[in-house]
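Q: Hi! First time doing this. I have a protein sequence and I read that you can turn it into a structure. Is that right? Here it is:
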Amino acid sequence: QVQLVESGGGLVQAGASLRLSCAVSEGIVSTYDTAWFRQAPGKEREFVAVFRGSTLRTSYSKSVKGRFTISRVSAKNTVYLRMNYLKLEDTAVYYCAAGPHMTTEYPYWGQGTQVTVSS
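A: Yes, that's right. Below is the predicted 3D structure, encoded as structure tokens:
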């Protein structure tokens, strides 16, 4: 059973940085795609970024491109999301998800970690 555990969320001021971690229970990060999604109060869950495990390619939503960086350390079975220049609108619960290469349906999800950006 694949398990994903997020950590690193917290309360920060606008303009600050934060790094989220997603620890995956099994060694699938090298082959699976691992993505970050987020859901703000009253809004639908939205895609943030993805790391393609087998191709090492990354993709970002327009709202975070240039500010966020997704990376992977296979030896630690961990995928990171470095978030710089945080804005108030980045406030959300951030979820890590994993699935087969180029999947559009992620079968494995973490429990989420709260990120709150204050003014």
